[in-house]
Structure formats: structure tokens, C-alpha cells
Design brief:
The chain is of the alpha/beta class. The protein has 26 helices and 22 strands. It has five domains: 4-143, no CATH class; 153-208 and 290-380, Rossmann fold (3-Layer(aba) Sandwich); 213-277, no CATH class; 392-422; 476-700, Lambda Exonuclease, Chain A. α8 crosses α9 and α12 (248-258) packs across α13 (264-272).
């Protein structure tokens, strides 16, 4: 580095340079008669500075956010007290005058006097018309930095992981050869690399000081303070905080810094825009900015991500002072800035002796292209020598991957035999089987939906209802279902057939899209059709009592319950017997079949039968139990389900059962027998259904209590019912041996 000019300095001199060079000089043990500033530091001292008073003034006057107000302030350095005839520039001039009148710009006259007779050297600072104008009254000169001309190649990799793996391997190799880890650096590393570097480097026992930052306001103590501070004084808010909290000192530090401005807005803004750096490792690899870092020949630098869009990270014409007007304030436009940036990048790369440059073709998300600078370098391909073990764990992982490639595709990696002969791994031995946990259920509430979920696959139930991994989210379908139930319940209960009123009432606090509102109108018409069917039913029915949305809760064991809601129960009491019909509205296409009852499938209607039997009905006799489907694609709202085969009992629900208009499939032949499609059951068969249902419920309860949550999705007639709507397919790793195939028995009725 050409810093010999410093030895010739006899009198006190001002050096203006980049922060990297400033830090480099400050670390030197040699004494120089110099003062060192970055360009920004110098400009703020020599011309003017500002504080939050100026930001507040602009924010309040023009109703601007703080960052926009600060942007205006930073652009004031470029304008003079002249009339430009350009709206943006003239606004800046007037703003500058306004701030001066109100004493909101800070001028340091002492500093001006101090440097008036000093030599000013701009070291490694680009020559621009703007800077020449700024320094015109000073004794200044430019001194260019002399760069080395080391030649480097660029190494290409298919993926980011392969790129990071290679770098970790090469760093381990350097350390193994005696290179101090403090002399190893990473550069050009953006956030997309953080996760991969943390994971892979840890396999090599390498620590990296990744610049993770946590927002101060993300900590609970700070967010609590902000909430308190809205309606309380500063002292009152602080007194309510836990002073032993780890971020309390950070909070107070920010408050003290901006307390003098006497503004809640400033303090809250700074708390929302302040960060806490994670702790650094003493022997951690540093991530540096290659454009602002002075390396020595003993250091080894790894430049990752040599990809388009990353390097060079080109300037864009998005500044307040745009390219079209930059000439009027002697600023360089983006084309000049990008040309200079390209030169700076190539010079800095060439200046590093021990530099490894890499790029990737893809990561987890997208495809990448090499940097536009790639033409300046030779591109080579390199790989890891797995015969050398810097990470046994990593080598075992690679052997597993090589196993996969060999067994699945017949491809044998050149290092496969070496790794195979050195490492013994249990390849392909993973078992997806559920391992029991020592969980004690002190409370359990089941419903039909939960029971059905367990039957379909008990592991799905475990993930959803035990581990609570499945968070219920309402969608349009669930809204429609709830709306239908609400409208029907209130319409029938109140004998008020203005169903639209109840629909609107239900939807009052629900936000819907235009598309959803369009379909909603069709559902409204369908509700009218359903109501018409219900009114028709009354003409044929002598069950003159009704209950709506009846919730039934059965205590199976202490603290173990089964609950359900039956939409409509029609009943009448006659000769000390209660004759009952059960009806539930469904917006879906539930399967109605008793063929798989003993397997526990399609149990909604049997569950209603079981639940109602636990109600306090006197000598209950079931006329039937049904679903009443609600579907805008169909206009058939007839009852679907099972009826009592005793015609005298059946007639209580439908006195025209021989050619029913309200029960689907219900019809009799000339000899009085029921048609084949008429699903009828005897009282004994209904009792049997209740017993089977109760037995199945208790069986599931017992299984849950004993933590039986095997992966066992059910397959019916070749259709995988257990997995078809499951959200956890990426967790269970289901195999063919896990499936349970159900054949079903004879259907009742």
C-alpha cells in the first residue's frame, strides 16, 4: 500500500479517506501528525450538521415521515443559494434558508478556523466536480491508492450449499496448515447465505460472526414500554418495567440519547429503528466489506456469491436528485457511478493476494447467473477431496447422498468407495413409526369430526389435536356452512321466514371478496329452496315438537366427554313413548353408508342416533335419522338417511311414505313392500347401531388414553381416505405398509 507519503508529512495534515483506511491507520503503531476523517464526517464538520430538531421541524411542517425528512436534509449539501429554475432544487434551496432562519443547521466555525491553514489530502477518493467545488477554498490534493495486480480465477458451483461446503472445506484446510483463523475472512455475503453458512460451517466446527441484528422493539420489554408511553409520562412508563431485563440498559441508552428533544415521536421512532447486534465469537470468522477493507498479504479472503445482481450492486436512478438534474449541482449520474463502481470492484479484487472467488447457479428458491464481471476472469471447477476428513459428520451426510444416487440412478461418485470404506452408516434405516410418549390425558373432549379424524389416521389426530399443529382457519366454505345453520335455526325457531334478514345479520362482521359476494347471492336462493322443502315436510309430518341446534354432552368417564350438535330434532309423545326424527343440514357431500360402521367410518348419522339416546326422552323410538343436503348445484333437498321399517311409525314423519316427496328413495311397491332403494331399519337394528357406535367411541377413547397414534391411513375401494385432506404429508413419511385397507361389511337396511 502506498502510504509512504505519510512519512513526508511534517506539519499537521488532514486526511480524508474511506472508513476502512481510517481503521487501518488507527491500528498502526506509528505516530503521524495527521487528523483522519471520512468524507461524510468532514463535510458535516466543515459545512454544517443537523440533529433531530431539524428532522422534527421538516416532518411537522410538511407532514413527512422521519426518513423522508432526513433524505431532504442530506440533499441540502448539494445546493447553493441560487435560483436553479428546477422545482426540486429550488425547494431544497428554500428549505435550507428556512432551516438557517430558524437556527436548525449547526455550523462549526471553530473547525473552519482550525483547518484554514492545514493541508487536506483526499486519499483514495474519486475525483468529482462536486468535491472540487466543496474544497475550492482549501489547500487540498488527491492521492490515489496504488493497487496490486494479483490474478484470480472464479470457481463455479451448481448450488449454494455446494459453494458453502467448498469454502468451509478450504478454510479447514488452511487452519490445518497453520493459518490463524483471525486471518481468514468472508466477503460479499448477503442474508441469503446466513442459514447455509451457519449450518454447514458448524459441521466443520467453524464459527462465523454473522451480522445478525435484532430490532430493539421486537423485545417484549421495549414493546411494553412503547405501549405504556403512549398514555403515560416517561417516568411512569419506565417505573413499570422490569429493570433486570437483559435489554433494559439498551432501552435506557436510546431514551437518554434523544431525551433532550422532548418528543415522544422521536423516542418511539428510534426505538423502532434501533438494533442490537448478536454476541460475537472471539475466534469467529469475520464478514468484511471488500470495497472498504484494507487487507494484508497474510490474510485469506473468500468472496462468495459472485453473481449477477449482487456484484456489482449497480446504482439506480432513484435518488431525489435524479440523473436529469444532477449536472446542475455537479453530481455524477448513475452511468458514471456504475462505471466507477466496476473499476473499484476490479481494483479491490486484484489487490487481494489470497482470494478465492465462487458463485452458484441456484439456491433453494431461484436460478442465478454469474456476475457481469465474469469475463474478466477464468472460470474453473473444483470440488472437495473427501479422502481428507475435516468433518466426519459432513462426510457421512455426503456418503448417504452418494448412496441415494448410486441405488436410485446407478451413478457412482468418485469418492463413494473412499467414504464407504471409512464410514459405517445405517443407510435407509429410518423408521417413520410413531414412538409412544408418556403423555397423561387429564381431560379429553371428542366430537364427530375429531373421532373421524382419529379413525381416518390416528397420527393425523395426534399432530392436529394433541400437538396442536393444525390451526383452524375459516374459509368461504366454512362461512357458508355456518351461515346456513344460523339462518335455518333462527328462521325455524322464530317462525320468521325472512331468511335474508338472518343471512345479513350473520355476515355483518364478515369480510368477503367480490367473487364470494357473487356466489353468496346464489346460496341465498338455495336457502329459500331449503326452507320451501322444510315447509313442505310439515304438510306430511305429525311430529309436532321441535328442537334446533341442540348441543348434547355425554360424560364417558370422569373428565372425558363426547359432544355434538344436532341441527333439528322433531318429536312427539304418544302412549308414554317419544317418537323422534333426527335431521342435520350438510353443505358438503358426506357419504351416507353403514357398511363401514364397525370400522368407524362415516359415523355422523350413527353418532347423532347415539347422542340423542343420551337425552332425557321418555322411551325413545326413532322414526328415522337423516342428512338434508344443501348444495347450489342441486335443487334436491329431500332427506337422505335411514327410516323405521314400521310403517305406522314412519308415517309420523311422512304420511305419504309410499311415494315420498320428502325422503329420498322412499317408495313402496304394489304389495306394500319397500323398494330396494328405501333404506329402512328395525328398532333392533337401530339399537345395534347405537351399541356399535358407543363401543367404537370408547375404543377410540381408550386408544387415545394409551397414546396409540400409529400412522394408519384408511383406504376404501382403492381411495386413500386417510391422506386426501391431510396437511401433514411432509411429516409422517407414510409407506405402503402403513395403509389399512377397509372392505366393509353388509349395509344395514
Amino acid at each position: 500500500m502506498n502510504i509512504e507519503f505519510l512519512d513526508d508529512i511534517k506539519s499537521e495534515t488532514i486526511i480524508i479517506c474511506k472508513s476502512g483506511f481510517k481503521n487501518y491507520l488507527l491500528k498502526q503503531k506509528k505516530l503521524y501528525t495527521i487528523k483522519i476523517y471520512t468524507l461524510n464526517e468532514f463535510i458535516h464538520l466543515y459545512y454544517f450538521d443537523y440533529d433531530y430538531r431539524a428532522i422534527l421541524y421538516i416532518s411537522d411542517k410538511y407532514n413527512l415521515k422521519y426518513d423522508i425528512a432526513k433524505m431532504y436534509l442530506d440533499n441540502l449539501y448539494y445546493v447553493d443559494d441560487v435560483k436553479y429554475g428546477i422545482k426540486k432544487l429550488d425547494f431544497l434551496c428554500e428549505l435550507k434558508k428556512d432551516l438557517i432562519r430558524n437556527n436548525l443547521l449547526i455550523y462549526n466555525d471553530n473547525f473552519k478556523k482550525y483547518i484554514s491553514n492545514k493541508k487536506v489530502i483526499l486519499y483514495d477518493i474519486s475525483r468529482t466536480k462536486y468535491l472540487s467545488k466543496l474544497f475550492t477554498d482549501l489547500d487540498f490534493e488527491y492521492i490515489d491508492r496504488k493497487f496490486n495486480n494479483y490474478k484470480h480465477n472464479v470457481i463455479s458451483f451448481n448450488t449454494m450449499n455446494e459453494e458453502v461446503e467448498y469454502v468451509a472445506y478450504q478454510i479447514s484446510k488452511l487452519i490445518d496448515n497453520g493459518i490463524d483463523i483471525k486471518n481468514i475472512k468472508l466477503t460479499n455475503v448477503d442474508k441469503s447465505y446466513y442459514s447455509s453458512i451457519s449450518r454447514i460451517f458448524s459441521l466443520y466446527n467453524l464459527k462465523v460472526n454473522i451480522p445478525y441484528k435484532s430490532k430493539l422493539s421486537s423485545y417484549k420489554l421495549v414493546s411494553n414500554f412503547i405501549d405504556l408511553y403512549k398514555n403515560n409520562t416517561l417516568e411512569e412508563s419506565i417505573n413499570q418495567l422490569d429493570k433486570n431485563d437483559s435489554v433494559y440498559i439498551d432501552l435506557v441508552s436510546v431514551i437518554n440519547k434523544y431525551l433532550k428533544y422532548e418528543s415522544k415521536d422521536i423516542i418511539v421512532y428510534e426505538l423502532n429503528n434501533s438494533y442490537i447486534n448478536d454476541k460475537k465469537y472471539d475466534n469467529g470468522i469475520e464478514i468484511i466489506d471488500y470495497l472498504d477493507y484494507i487487507s494484508n498479504d497474510n490474510e485469506y479472503i473468500f468472496m462468495l456469491g459472485f453473481n449477477d445482481g449482487v456484484i456489482p450492486n449497480s446504482y439506480k436512478d432513484t435518488d431525489y436528485i435524479t440523473d436529469t438534474i444532477k449536472q446542475y449541482v455537479l453530481l455524477d449520474d448513475t452511468s458514471i457511478l456504475n462505471k466507477r463502481l466496476r473499476e473499484d470492484i476490479l481494483n479491490n479484487i486484484a489487490n487481494i493476494k489470497n482470494l478465492t472467488i465462487t458463485y452458484k447457479d441456484m439456491d433453494y428458491v431461484k436460478t442465478y447467473y454469474p456476475s457481469t464481471l465474469i469475463g474478466e476472469f477464468d472460470v474453473i471447477h473444483d470440488d472437495i477431496d473427501y479422502s481428507v476428513s475435516y468433518s466426519s459428520t459432513y462426510n457421512k451426510m455426503k456418503l448417504t447422498k452418494m448412496y441415494d444416487e448410486y441405488l436410485k440412478y446407478g451413478y457412482k461418485d468418485k469418492y463413494f468407495s473412499i467414504l464407504y470404506n471409512n464410514y459405517k452408516i445405517n443407510y435407509n434405516c429410518y423408521s417413520n413409526k410413531y414412538s409412544k410418549i408418556g403423555r397423561v390425558f387429564d381431560h379429553l373432549t371428542l366430537s364427530y369430526s375429531k373421532l373421524q379424524k382419529y379413525i381416518k389416521c390416528s397420527f393425523q389426530y395426534y399432530l392436529s389435536d394433541v400437538l396442536k399443529l393444525d390451526v383452524f382457519e375459516s374459509n368461504f366454505s366454512t362461512v357458508i356452512g355456518s351461515m346456513v345453520h344460523y339462518a335455518m335455526e333462527n328462521t325455524l325457531k322464530n317462525n320468521d321466514y325472512d331468511y335474508s334478514k338472518y343471512v345479513d345479520e350473520f355476515l355483518n362482521d364478515i369480510t368477503l371478496t367480490k367473487k364470494e359476494r357473487f356466489f353468496l347471492e346464489q346460496y341465498k336462493e338455495a336457502i329459500r329452496g331449503l326452507l320451501d322443502e322444510v315447509i313442505l315436510e310439515r304438510d306430511y309430518c305429525s311430529l309436532n315438537n321441535a328442537m334446533y341446534e341442540e348441543e348434547i354432552k355425554v360424560e364417558l368417564e370422569p373428565n372425558i366427554y363426547f359432544v355434538g350438535i344436532i341441527d333439528k330434532i322433531l318429536y312427539t309423545v304418544l302412549n308414554d313413548k317419544t317418537y323422534i326424527a333426527l335431521i342435520d343440514y350438510k353443505t358438503g357431500n358426506d357419504v351416507i353408508s353403514l357398511k363401514y360402521l364397525t370400522d368407524g367410518m362415516y359415523m355422523q348419522l350413527p353418532i347423532y342416533l347415539y347422542l340423542s339416546s343420551k337425552m332425557l326422552f321418555q322411551n325413545p323410538v326413532y322414526v328415522g335419522f337423516y342428512l338434508q343436503r344443501f348444495n347450489i348445484k342441486e335443487n334436491d333437498y329431500r332427506l337422505i338417511g335411514y327410516s323405521n321399517c314400521d310403517k305406522n311409525i314412519l308415517s309420523m314423519l311422512d304420511n305419504n311414505y309410499d311415494n315420498s316427496k320428502i325422503i329420498k328413495g322412499m317408495k313402496t311397491s304394489k304389495d306394500g313392500s319397500f323398494y330396494k332403494n328405501a333404506k329402512v331399519l328395525s328398532n333392533e337394528e337401530m339399537d345395534n347401531i347405537k351399541e356399535i357406535t358407543e363401543k367404537k367411541i370408547l375404543e377410540v377413547v381408550d386408544n387415545i388414553k394409551n397414546n396409540k397414534f400409529d400412522i394408519n391411513p384408511k383406504v376404501i375401494n382403492g381411495v386413500n381416505k386417510g391422506c386426501e385432506f391431510c396437511k401433514f404429508k411432509d411429516i409422517c413419511f407414510v409407506t405402503k405398509s402403513d395403509y389399512t385397507y377397509l372392505n366393509g361389511g353388509d349395509d344395514f337396511g
